[in-house]
Fold this sequence. Notes:
Blueprint: H1 6-14, H2 18-30, H3 35-44, E1 50-56, H4 62-75, E2 80-85, H5 92-103, E3 112-116, H6 123-139, E4 144-150, H7 154-160, E5 165-170, H8 176-182, H9 185-188, E6 191-194, H10 202-215, E7 226-228, H11 237-254, H12 256-298, H13 304-313
Parallel strand pairs: 1-4, 1-5, 2-3, 2-4, 5-6, 6-7
Amino acid sequence: MPDLPTSELIARTLAGERVPLARAISWVENESEGSVELLDACFGASGRAFRIGITGPPGAGKSTLVTKLATEYRHRGETVAIVAVDPTSPFSGGALLGDRVRMVELAGDPGVFIRSMATRGSMGGLAVHTAQVCDVLDAAGYSRILIETVGVGQSELEVAQTADTTAVVLVPESGDAVQAMKAGLMEIADVFVINKADREGADRAAFAIQSALDLRAHSGTWTIPVQLTIASKADGVRELVERFEEHLAYLRETGDLERRRRRRLEQRLRDLIEDQLWRQFRAHAGDGIWNDALAALAQRSATPHQIATRLLSARD
Length: 316
Ligand SMILES: Nc1nc2c(ncn2[C@@H]2O[C@H](COP(=O)(O)OP(=O)(O)O)[C@@H](O)[C@H]2O)c(=O)[nH]1
Ligand SMILES: [Mg+2]
């Protein structure tokens, strides 16, 4: 597709055309010229999609599960966008290829759109870009957005938190549950999945998770379910979709959906303002002043607090 004028790309993306949509997502990822205009146009048309985060350790079966979830949602008449964010892949091509192979199952269905996110740059940037890409997909009309992330660190949790509902996928092997607790996954899970339930110990693992959950103080009236699945056979997938839809209904009824989204929007606004203030400040300070400040710090002739106060008050 030759270069499109921004307004045409926006119009065709909002109309749900796939090729412009793919281009629009690349604009967002690359922060290309026109991406702000695009995001502004998409923002007003977003807020309709239900965003579901699927996170958990590498190899737990997230990609397989996401594929089956998409199929199940299609049976229910929903349109589905899949955003795969896998920053653990050592060479970006590897994960993409693996996902592509798995996603062959969904190929040719115009109601499914699959996108792997590039992971260059900082993870903080990735969380922002993921949220923005979800806005574009939402505006393009997909009713369910499945976000696959690897739950291994703080920054990955940020990506997971761009979702309305977060599912943590574990496998029966003992230790997984303990890892999940350490990694802070317990705190973000709305739904737990024990995948690979064809293996030994699935019931025990589910019981361990359930017991750990029972010990925690409950907030609200949502009881976090633990769903067993065999993703490779699509076993338990229909039930898992039921759990998601129940959670969505719960979020709507209690007003939590609005509260969660509001909190996310507030965070985005704050990030933007912090970013812009920093840029303005840096441009204003100039390299000479900045390098002098760094030199003073290195020589311990002033403290970071003193310099920050001095630079900020000199700004006006
Ligand atoms: N035995 C078994 N294997 C599974 C199941 N689900 C996925 N797998 C396999 O586990 C491996 C990792 O799956 P993948 O979906 O790539 O995991 P991800 O890294 O979490 O995305 C693949 O070889 C899958 O075929 C399951 O329910 N049972
Ligand atoms: Mg995967």
